[in-house]
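Dear support,

I submitted the protein below through the web form. The confirmation email said the job was done, but the results page showed an empty box. After a refresh the structure appeared. I'm attaching both so you can tell me whether what I see now is the final result or a partial one.
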Amino acid sequence: MSADTAHDRLISIVLDAASIGKADENVEHERRVAIADLLEANRFRPEDGPGGPYALRLAIEEQRLVFDVSREDGTPVRMFVFSLGPLRRILKDYFLICESYYEAVRDASLAQIEAVDMGRRGVHNEGSSLLKERLEGKIEVDFDTARRLFTLIVALHRRGA
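What the results page shows now:
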């Protein structure tokens, strides 16, 4: 990261509990891990926004994904609202292939597990690419950050048993 872009990153992510809701402990753990992974390494800058670092509040409001971005000191930068519609199919596909993966881990051969895992990674990459495309012109992210954000969005949609 160059000196010019060293601050173009997220340093804080808060999930809006009122809109996202509580899940079982396994799902809550998955959410915490997704946030930690994202904060560890990311490239994030709202287009035409002031320099960061940034704090992000994620919410789901009226079936829309809300990215409420502020500066480190709490100064509001901008709120972005995205329809969840374009991501629904990929989220559904991802959940289905994850179920197949967990079933394969219990019963299948190593070759079958690897094949399902390759499919799972492929769908995850597809979701990451779509998310990066949706953010284009609004929030600048690299592919790895889009991938970590997609992981977090997946975790937000899990409620647990």
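Response: this is the final, complete result; the empty box was a page-load delay. The radius of gyration is 16 Å.
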